[in-house]
Specification:
This protein is of the alpha+beta class. It has 1 helix and 5 strands; from the N terminus they run βββββα. A 5-stranded antiparallel β-sheet has the order 3-2-1-4-5, covered by helices on one side.
Length: 89
């Protein structure tokens, strides 16, 4: 099954809205993600990430709910996640 996981943009790299990338935090696990499909995304926004690409922006409440569902389903097992709320910095 393929899933999109919510994360918070903590750093944006590059100026071109179609070639930018970002460091995205998934409850403390930070990954480099392409923002090609979300040129409107800005620092502090939450994005849904699939296969290393942010596919949409989401509000913080939706991100928290999605993250909670993934955790409840066991889809995040094996990750060393800090026990924090994904809507926090």
């Amino acid at each position: 099954m393929c899933l999109a996981v919510p994360g918070k943009i903590v750093e944006i790299i590059g100026d071109d809205p179609y070639l930018r990338s970002a460091k995205v935090s998934f409850a403390g696990v930070v990954k480099l993600i392409s923002l090609t499909c979300t040129p409107e995304a800005k620092l502090g926004d939450f994005v849904l990430v699939h296969v290393g690409v942010a596919i949409s922006t989401v509000d913080p409440q939706e991100a928290a709910e999605t993250f909670a569902y993934l955790k409840a389903m066991g889809e995040l097992d094996g990750l060393d996640l800090a026990p924090t709320n994904p809507t926090r910095s």
